[in-house]
Amino acid sequence: MSESTDQGATTGPGFGNYQNEIYLNGLVGEVPPFTTDLTALGASASTRLDSGAYGYLAGSAGSGATHRANRAAFERHRLVPRMLADAGDRDLSTTVLGTRVPAPVLLAPLGVQSIIHPDGELATARAASALDVPVVLSTHSSHSLEEVAEADGEGPRWFQLYWPNDDDVCVSILRRAAASGYSALVVTLDTWTLAWRPQDLDQSYLPFLRGIGTAIPFSDPAFRALLAEPPEENPEAAVLAWVSMFTGRDRPWDRLPFLREHWDGPIVLKGVLHPDDARRAADAGMDGVVVSNHGGRQVDGAVAALDALPEVVRAVGDRTEVLFDSGVRTGSDVLKALALGARAVLYGRPYAYGLAHAGEDGVRHVLRSLLADLDLTLGLSGHRTPNELTPSDLWC
Question: Which of 294, 357, 365, 383 is catalytic?
Fold first, then answer.
């Protein structure tokens, strides 16, 4: 695909035009760099990654039951297309917690991306910025907050926090994120310790113990001040300090004011599945929740995130913004989550599979494919904007 054609489509009138671009490129013998089937990306990426990296990216907790439940929930919910809806002109843009976005899609936080491609989060940020899609940077990034912000440029960006056990380190990281233009804070609640993950255990593979995904703490002055030697000189000791600081502590609800004290922007709690937890988040003044089971990576046999979504929306949808992730693959998946009340979705593994295929270009291809699929399916289901979707548009 030529650079000029790609740039023109990015600023075109509709995401669905990527389909036209692909077909027209076929007239000169060009085909997409890899599959446009967003459900086939994992199998394709498995041939490009070593077994450790692929297992870490694609693996799930325990038997994989939660991962399967996520996909089964999307299969059970079916769109009911409506006709003669004058849906030829569509506008997917919306605002999520004050961030204006061209479509209700954000890139979910996904750490240690350098095990997938050498450019890691830098490539992802550049691809997202080109499409004005917000990227949510993981605490476990392979690159520093500042480096990813520079790669993202003027693009919208949020920061995801794995809450350190040291308050000074936490405050230091939050200050760096704010100074680097990350406008919202996403606090992951469900991964205070790692689940039993057979794919990783069978290979004895945990990238953090190899010093991968530690760029943010290793570059943090408060963390470095706790070390007898800098990470560059004694990486093993730094890794051990990191492990003790970022795992093993499940905090109580009364610790949330600490985050509000040290973060001026919106705060979102990620990993909420029970409506009572959503109510407690709203009561605590949180600006949003992400209905998520971590893509099936934390609790084996847990409820599918899509099945939990309606109850959370009913509980707090009038008080706080409800976002969604876990199991989203296609444009129709996005529409189903929106119809059930999500304000936007966080999109995870598929863009990482694109990263494995072709770095920045691979992420861009996956995102453009998703947005085109979303745009076209929205219109073909009889809607002009995502805000028109309601539960009545689904057959369950």
Answer: 294
* 3-state DSSP assignment of residue 153: coil
What's the predicted TM-score (pTM) here? Answer: 0.95
Helices and strands counted in the chain (H then E): 17, 12
Q: 330 has which bridge partners?
A: none
pLDDT in tens, 43-74: 999 999 999 999 999 999 999 999 999 999 99
Residue 294 annotated to the active site: yes
Helices (H), the chain: 3-10, 17-26, 41-45, 51-58, 65-76, 120-131, 145-152, 167-179, 198-201, 215-218, 221-225, 235-246, 256-262, 275-283, 305-316, 331-339, 349-380
- Going by pLDDT thresholds of 50, 70 and 90, the confidence category of residue 13 is very low
d(CA 72, CA 352): 22
CB atoms within 10 A of CB 61: 24
pLDDT-derived band at 248 (thresholds 50, 70, 90) equals confident
Query: CA 113 to CA 121: how far, in whole Å?
Result: 6
Name residue 226's beta-bridge partners: none
